[in-house]
């Protein structure tokens, strides 16, 4: 069977240590600059929705999620190697969600664009939920490995929506105040 997935991505997922290490390593590289930004005035001054966990939670949660998603990719490629043609779509979705995942931190923290990050996380969550759904008949274990990730993405999406919404409302208030100041000075 010929796959349309690049060979190096198939090989990466076939080796458990590489399958787990790839999202861990890429996630670290994507999130590394975040540590400085969360200590910045920009982040500290963001209006955040209720339930925002302490920043120390994120470096604990994400490695666990990356490891579980990486092992899920190994199980997906194992199903593909057994001849399950549905696994090819699952592996494509896995790599698509990984790319969307890696884009989120630079969008939110690097470019300081919660709105663009929200578009990304919506696509990420949709892709991951669909991947998890179709994995059931391919590899129930892989689907179960992604359930905590789906739960975390739901929570992360809530946080992203909350920050985006609250910041948009805050900017509108600042515009009204600025407009009022301009009118009084005219």
UniProtKB/TrEMBL annotation:
InterPro entries reported in the protein's UniProt record: TspO/MBR-related_sf, TspO_MBR
Cellular compartments annotated: Membrane
**Keyword Iron-sulfur attached:** no
Keywords assigned by UniProt?
Membrane, Transmembrane, Transmembrane helix
An example of a Pfam family matching this protein is TspO_MBR
A single Gene Ontology CC annotation of this entry is: mitochondrial outer membrane
Q: How does it sit in the membrane?
A: Multi-pass membrane protein
This protein's source sits in the domain of life called Eukaryota
* TM regions (residue ranges): 60-80, 92-109, 115-132, 144-166
Q: What is its main location?
A: membrane
User: Secretion signal: which residues?
Assistant: none
Q: Which GO terms describe its biological process?
A: tetrapyrrole metabolic process
Spell out the PANTHER family in the cross-references.
Answer: PERIPHERAL-TYPE BENZODIAZEPINE RECEPTOR, TRANSLOCATOR PROTEIN
Q: Which family does it belong to?
A: Belongs to the TspO/BZRP family.
Designated name of the protein: TspO/MBR-related protein
